[in-house]
Design brief:
With about 180 residues, the chain is of the alpha/beta class. It has 2 domains: about 35 residues; about 140 residues, Vaccinia Virus protein VP39 (Rossmann fold). It has a 7-stranded mixed beta sheet, with helices on both faces. α5 links the parallel β4 and β5. The N and C termini lie far apart (about 70 Å).
Amino acid sequence: MINFLIILFPALIILLFLSLIGFLLFILASAFYSDFVGAPYIQNDDKVIKESLKLANVSKKTKLIDLGSGNGKVLRMAEKDFKTTNTLGYELAPWPYFLSKLHKTKTIRKSIFDADLDDCDVVYVYLLPKLLKKLSDKFAKLKIQNPKVKIVSPVFKIEGLIPKKVIDCYHKGFKKMVSIYLY
């Protein structure tokens, strides 16, 4: 029995070590993938998210879509703080998508460029300016199809669209005031 344990213990240690290496490689590959497609995984500040959702008048009846939803934090905050029951996130990067599933948020692993925005009330986008620029035509068409839809973009302005309202909010991570744009 002792001989068996002497053989089994190192094998378990090696298996555990290899599993840990595999897990770390998965996270690293996901980060590189996110950077490659132009949307690194960066969480937004809680207060900025809440102020963004307030600015868009998110409520229980709101259908909220988060483009580049990461780990689903915005969706969870909308559900918890605003009692929103109809939320959907689009996330392509494997690691944040996996985290969103652990948090039990309704997230689709699909490109933000292929997102179906037809029936939504609010689109939340915390994306870098180069991606917002690529989405600006899609947003302009959406606003023509559904003038009541609200697009809220914390921190970054969407080139080509004119905001209806802009508020400022302190961002703890950036240690400065940032703007939140409502279109």
